Every structure is written in structure tokens, then in C-alpha cells.
């Protein structure tokens, strides 16, 4: 096509189309490259399998140290070198889980999972993965045991802080990006815990009964996307059972769904000590048995497996398939020419931690505009609470990080305020955790009157009081669920006393899961929610409190006004009886329950305020009627009414009136986080596939896209719907 003259619009169109075509070509090349390299890898694997003895093959299938498996030195095959975890690359651990006390294994402490989710920013999830992958490589780990993203079914689950959210779509968008980020460094992500590991009570033997529709619509989507979109190279089978079979030997989960329907080519790694048999596990889809207690030759996948092969109970073909998967991981990681030095504890990684933390903090209430702090008028601040000086990189049971540094809330304020303001510190309460029983957190510490008195004195002599309360990494932990939603350590008494002493009291709650802060919502006027927010925690908090950062976090799960409102508890479907738990709520998890049952929560899913306000206008879709294979393009405008720039997360929910099946009142199908200048307007576009509107039909065992009208709701939270339109899907 000869182009003689171009209007400006024509030039833009041409540029766009050139770029667009270029992008397609680049993507084509990327997938072609992947196909070529995959075929080359397959050929290499075929050659190696022929050379390996059966003993060598079996040696690759089970742990030979607390985080590793044996390689085959004579053939140049390295072993698997795994490490935790979602918060950062864990310090080196000895058998028995004691620290190896090295001086060379510090790493960056990244914000916890629900903090990443509260950013509603998939780009930050990618950066988190990228940096975690770089640090894993620097520590010579070719598998990082992250990301973890089981659905937050009960707010009491001890690992809610590690996971993302109660919504499968938000989980999916973050999980795919985290996996792609990690694997961009030729380190394998290990997505976990597959599947329905939604409580810690009796996690090692609890059997989950969940209907197929809820499994497919709620609990599997993020795992499916991590595999089919994110191309995760490993996945960790969960401790629990699903429908009577342990996840580590569950043929339906591992063979039919994961390896069959989803075409997973990587390796299934058991949770540590989560393997329960030799023949069953070997024939039903487990590839690697991990554990922490030697002697490793006693493992199910060691001598017992060799005997089972010799006895014909496990085929050589099955063993070769496991070895093939492990070699697939090794060729993409430690045998890849890109498995180079990596980087660790860099300023760039600290910046990622800061950016996540600063976008995760949620402004819950500010009705007297105590925030941001007016530093021209304030001469003294009382900083009160154990969480003002506590660090969160270590604690509880399970994975932590030996952080090279962590800026506490107090240190952050000191960094930012310097000597411009007098800071009067009082600890206010002790967050020392006293646990007696297994499985349930039975911490019962009460307030200390002397500590409260000291805090009140600090508050009285200060212009403003900032209270740092909430949970901590001992109080919220793997291996035990919380007993209730209450604030621990007698904190409410402290809040009451300090608030009475100083009307300018600001409450900062630190936690990884919902707490009952109903009394605080009623009595206090400035409430900020923060998280176990990584090494830059204190700097990010100080920047939000002083207004350098306009808060943009939104809650990734519902805060119930009381535990009984929450579906698993309302239906007496937690923690189960006789090691059985039935997910009676089905698909109505989180806001799906609250909205469908018209229950008013304390704070809704997707809620978060800003130092400005936003108005939504002009919600449009590119068509009014769609066919089943179509993409729905949605556009709207967002106006920033204030004098400060900010970021707003517009949430797009879909509702299906008069459906042939039970449907939640609304479901999240898209979201976009956009910066909007002061007094500015942003044009926002989002899209979703018509097929995303499908429900899973249990009878036909397939996804069904129902024809008819659908409501499209644009909201600032699941309970703050600003605009609505309708589309029609034809038969
Ligand atoms: C733990 C956890 C898992 C972790 C593994 C190794 O019990 O369930 O998330 O990666 O063991 O520490």
C-alpha cells in the first residue's frame, strides 16, 4: 500500500496499527521461541531418561535434605533446590526446622499476600514475582515455594495473611502476574496449596466436601490460570483431603484436572510431610515427595517406591513420566543458560517493597480529616502501641525472612518527621503471644493498666495520638486458626483510654486478615488499615499518614461485623466435625454471600477511601448485544474532585437477573486501577469475555453461558455501585 499523505489521525491510526501488528508479531515470536525451546528440551529429556538407572530415577523423586532432592552427578543433572516463601527467600534451615544461623542468607522482606491483593495492582504482583525470582536465583534456589493464594473462605484462617483474597478473579489476576514475574528469572514458581486448603484446623487430615460448581467457580480458577496462563512449572499439593482422598494422591485433582484438562507439564511437589502412600500417590499424580525428617530413604518415594516398581505395582512408564516432569523444571531453571547470578537485597527490590506497601494501605475512615497530618500545626505526636516498634519479617510457625532490615512504624515516622515534631512513644500493650494448644490460637492476654496509664499520659501531652494495634506474625500463623475476630492483647481497652484522653486519636490497625473493629469504627474518626508490609513498612505508613502518598488500597476480603455473618460460620460449616468439613455455602463465599443474603458487613470487599473523592460518569459498552465468543469492551470516566492526585480502583461486577441457576447477587469480572490528577478526569477501559459470564453446570459437567440480559455494575467497592448498564447475550 503506497502512502502518499497522512492526516494526523491517519498517522496515529497507522502508528497504532504498526505497533499493534508489531506486538502480535512479538507475541508470536515469543510463543514460537517457547515451542522451539520446549521441543529441544523434550529431546534432551528423552535422551537422559534412557541413560538413567531406576535407582537414579527414584532418587530424584524424594527429598534428600530439608528443601532439596538428589540430582545425578554422572549425567550433570542437578537436584531440586527449593525454598520458602511468599514473604521472601527464607533463611537457610537445618533439619528439625532450626535456623542454620548463617550470615549470608538475609533477603528482602516483601509485603504479605493480602497486602499485595489490597493494592489491586497486577503490575506490582509481577514486580514482586520478578524480584522474588531474582533473589531466589541469588540464593541458588531453582524453585521458590510461592505464590500462595487459597481463597479466604473463613476470616479466621491463620494463613489469610499469606493468601490474597476471597474472590477468584482478583486471585487469578495477581497469581498469574506473580508466577510470570518469578519465572521471568528462570526460577520455578510453586503455586500453593492445591487445593481447598482454606483452614489450618486439622489441616493435615481434614477432608473437604465441596460441590463441583463451587470447586470450579471459586477454588480452582486462580490455580487454573496460574498453570494455563502463567505457565507455572511446579505446584504444591495441599495437606488436606478433597472428597475423601488426600490432595497428594487425588487422581481427580492431579490427573484428571491438573494434568489432563489443564495440560500441566511441570512437577507436583507434596507439602512437607504431606505424602501418605507409595503406590496410590505414585499412580495418582504426585511427582516429588518433600519432607523435613530424615532418614530420607524411609520415604514413600524412596526404597518403598523402588520395591513397588519391582513388584509391578508402579510402572516404569509412571516413573519415567515423573522424571520427565522434574527434568522439565530443571531445564527451565538450573540448567537454563539464564539461571545466572541473580540479585538480592538491592535498592530496586526495596523500592518494589515500598511501592507495594504504599499502595496496599487502606483508609477506612477520615470523617474529621485528621489525615493527612497537618504538620504546620502539629508540634507533638504520641506514637503508641506494640505494633509501632514490632517487626513482621519473622514470627509464628512456617516461612519468614531474615530481613536485612525492616523499617518499623515508629522508625518511619522518625525518618520522615525528623525533629520537626516531638514524638512521645508509649508501648501501650504487649504483643507477646502465649500459645498453649495446637490448631487454635488461644491467646488471652489482657490489657496492662500501667502500660495504658503511660500511653494516656503520652496522649495527653501530645497534639495528636497515633495508635498502632492489631495482630502480629505470631498471632496470625500457619498451623493455627484464630479463635475469633477480636482484637488481641487487650487492645480495645487501650483504644478506649487513649481516645478519651485525646480527641485527635488516629487508629492504625496492622493485620493480614479481618478483625472486629466495630467499636473503633463507631468511636474513632481516623482509621487506617495496614499489613505485615515488608521492609519498607514504616516509611510507607509515614508517607500515607503525612500525605506524601494518597492511600489507594482496597480491602481484598469482607470485614464481617460479627463472625456469625460470615457464610462458613453462619452455616456452622467450620471447622467441621470428625475431620470432615462441608462447604455448605457453595459458591456464596465472601461478598457473594453478604450481597446475596443482604447482610451489611462492617466493611465490604473492595472498600477503601482516598484523601480525595472520585465521580464516575459515561459508562458505555461497545455493543448492546453480544454473541458467545465476543469480548465486552467497557468504558467510563473517572473525575477526581479534589486538590490531590490519587489512584482509584474501578471494579466491574456482573449480575444476572432471572438466571436458571442460583447466582451470586454480583461477581467481579474486571477491574482497573488508574491514576487521576487533581481536578482531572481519566478515561478508563476494561474488558471481559462473554465466556467469563458462564456458570459451571454440574449435571452436564461443563461451563454454560446463559443467554439473556446481564447487568454491568461499575463500583468503588462491592457495596458502592456508581453506574450501571445492561448488555444482552444471544443464544
Ligand atoms: C509448610 C507449608 C508450605 C511450606 C512448606 C515448607 O508446612 O504448608 O507452605 O512451603 O511446609 O516449609
Largest sheet data: 6 strands, mixed
Low-confidence stretches: 1-19
Major sheet strand order: 11-18-17-15-12-13
- The amount of beta strand, in percent, is 15-25%
Report the top-level CATH class of the largest domain: Alpha Beta
Q: What small molecules does this complex bind?
A: alpha-D-glucopyranose
CATH architecture classification name of the largest domain = Alpha-Beta Barrel
State mean pLDDT (0 to 100 scale): 95
Distance between the termini: 40 Å
Query: How many E-type strands?
Result: 29
Shape: globular
- The total tally of domains equals 3
Tell me the helix content: 25-40%
Give me the number of helical elements: 19
Write down the Rg.
26 Å
Structural class: alpha/beta
CATH superfamily (homologous) name of the largest domain? Glycoside hydrolase, family 3, N-terminal domain
The name of the CATH topology of the largest domain is TIM Barrel
Amino acid at each position: 500500500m503506497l502512502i502518499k499523505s497522512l492526516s494526523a489521525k491517519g498517522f496515529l491510526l497507522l502508528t497504532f496499527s504498526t505497533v499493534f501488528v508489531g506486538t502480535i508479531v512479538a507475541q508470536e515470536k515469543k510463543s514460537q521461541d517457547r515451542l522451539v525451546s520446549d521441543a529441544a528440551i523434550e529431546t534432551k529429556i528423552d535422551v537422559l531418561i534412557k541413560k538413567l538407572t531406576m535407582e537414579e530415577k527414584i532418587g530424584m523423586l524424594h527429598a534428600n535434605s530439608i528443601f532439596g532432592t538428589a540430582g545425578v552427578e554422572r549425567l550433570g543433572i542437578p537436584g531440586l533446590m527449593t525454598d520458602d516463601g511468599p514473604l521472601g527467600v527464607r533463611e537457610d534451615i537445618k533439619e528439625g526446622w532450626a535456623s542454620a544461623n548463617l550470615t549470608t542468607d538475609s533477603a528482602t522482606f516483601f509485603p504479605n499476600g493480602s497486602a499485595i491483593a489490597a493494592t489491586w495492582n497486577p503490575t506490582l504482583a509481577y514486580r514482586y514475582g520478578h524480584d522474588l525470582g531474582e533473589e531466589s536465583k541469588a540464593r541458588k534456589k531453582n524453585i521458590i515455594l510461592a505464590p500462595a493464594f487459597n481463597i479466604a473462605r473463613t476470616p479466621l484462617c491463620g494463613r489469610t495473611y499469606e493468601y490474597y483474597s476471597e474472590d477468584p478473579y482478583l486471585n487469578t489476576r495477581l497469581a498469574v502476574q506473580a508466577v510470570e514475574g518469578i519465572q521471568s528469572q528462570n526460577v520455578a514458581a510453586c503455586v500453593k496449596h492445591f487445593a481447598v486448603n482454606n483452614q489450618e484446623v486439622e489441616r493435615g487430615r481434614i477432608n473437604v466436601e465441596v460441590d463441583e460448581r463451587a470447586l470450579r467457580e471459586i477454588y480452582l480458577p486462580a490455580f487454573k490460570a496460574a498453570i494455563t496462563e502463567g505457565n507455572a512449572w511446579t505446584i504444591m499439593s495441599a495437606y488436606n483431603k478433597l472428597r475423601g482422598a488426600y490432595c497428594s494422591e487425588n487422581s481427580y485433582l492431579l490427573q484428571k484436572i491438573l494434568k489432563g484438562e489443564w495440560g500441566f507439564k511441570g512437577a507436583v511437589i507434596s507439602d512437607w510431610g504431606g505424602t501418605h502412600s507409595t503406590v496410590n500417590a505414585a499412580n495418582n499424580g504426585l511427582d516429588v515427595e518433600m519432607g523435613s525428617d530424615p532418614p530420607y530413604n524411609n520415604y514413600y518415594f524412596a526404597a518403598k517406591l523402588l520395591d513397588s516398581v519391582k513388584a509391578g505395582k508402579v510402572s516404569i512408564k509412571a516413573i519415567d513420566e515423573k522424571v520427565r516432569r522434574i527434568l522439565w523444571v530443571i531445564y527451565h531453571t538450573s540448567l537454563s543458560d539464564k539461571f545466572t547470578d541473580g540479585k538480592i537485597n538491592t535498592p530496586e527490590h526495596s523500592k518494589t517493597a515500598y511501592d507495594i506497601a504504599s499502595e496496599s494501605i487502606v483508609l477506612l475512615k477520615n470523617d474529621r480529616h485528621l489525615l493527612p497530618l497537618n504538620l504546620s500545626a502539629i508540634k507533638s505526636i504520641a506514637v503508641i502501641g506494640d505494633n509501632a516498634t514490632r517487626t513482621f519479617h519473622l514470627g509464628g510457625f512456617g516461612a519468614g525472612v531474615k530481613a536485612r532490615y525492616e523499617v518499623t512504624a515508629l522508625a518511619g515516622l522518625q525518618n520522615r518527621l525528623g525533629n520537626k515534631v516531638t514524638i512521645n512513644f508509649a508501648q501501650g500493650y504487649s504483643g507477646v503471644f502465649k500459645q498453649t494448644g495446637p490448631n487454635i490460637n488461644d491467646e488471652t492476654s489482657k490489657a496492662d493498666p500501667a502500660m495504658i496509664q503511660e500511653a494516656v499520659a503520652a496522649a495527653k501531652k501530645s497534639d495528636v495520638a497515633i495508635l498502632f494495634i492489631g495482630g502480629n506474625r505470631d498471632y496470625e500463623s500457619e498451623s493455627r486458626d484464630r479463635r475469633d475476630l477480636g482484637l488481641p492483647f487487650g487492645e480495645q481497652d487501650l483504644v478506649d483510654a487513649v481516645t478519651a484522653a485525646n480527641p485527635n486519636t488516629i487508629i492504625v490497625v496492622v493485620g493480614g486478615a479481618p478483625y472486629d473493629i466495630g467499636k473503633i469504627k463507631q468511636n474513632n474518626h481516623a482509621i487506617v488499615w495496614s499489613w505485615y508490609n515488608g521492609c519498607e513498612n514504616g516509611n510507607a505508613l509515614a508517607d500515607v499518614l503525612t500525605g506524601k502518598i494518597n492511600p489507594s488500597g482496597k480491602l481484598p476480603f469482607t470485614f464481617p461485623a460479627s463472625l456469625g455473618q460470615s457464610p462458613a460460620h453462619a452455616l456452622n460449616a467450620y471447622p467441621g466435625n470428625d475431620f470432615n468439613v462441608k462447604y455448605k455455602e457453595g459458591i456464596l463465599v465472601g461478598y457473594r454471600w453478604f450481597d446475596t443474603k443482604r447482610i451489611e458487613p462492617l466493611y465490604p470487599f473492595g472498600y477503601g477511601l482516598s484523601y480525595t473523592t472520585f465521580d464516575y460518569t459515561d459508562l458505555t459498552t461497545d455493543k448492546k448485544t453480544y454473541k458467545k465468543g465476543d469480548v465486552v469492551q467497557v468504558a467510563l470516566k473517572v473525575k477526581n474532585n479534589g486538590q490531590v492526585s490519587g489512584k482509584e480502583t474501578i471494579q466491574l461486577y456482573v449480575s444476572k437477573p432471572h438466571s436458571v441457576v442460583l447466582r451470586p447477587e454480583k461477581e467481579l469480572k474486571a477491574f482497573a486501577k488508574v491514576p487521576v490528577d487533581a481536578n482531572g478526569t481519566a478515561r478508563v477501559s476494561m474488558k471481559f469475555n462473554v465466556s467469563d459470564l458462564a456458570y459451571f453446570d454440574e449435571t452436564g459437567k461443563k461451563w454454560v453461558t446463559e443467554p439473556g440480559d446481564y447487568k454491568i455494575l461499575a463500583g468503588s467497592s462491592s457495596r458502592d455501585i456508581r453506574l450501571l448498564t445492561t448488555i444482552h447475550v444471544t443464544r
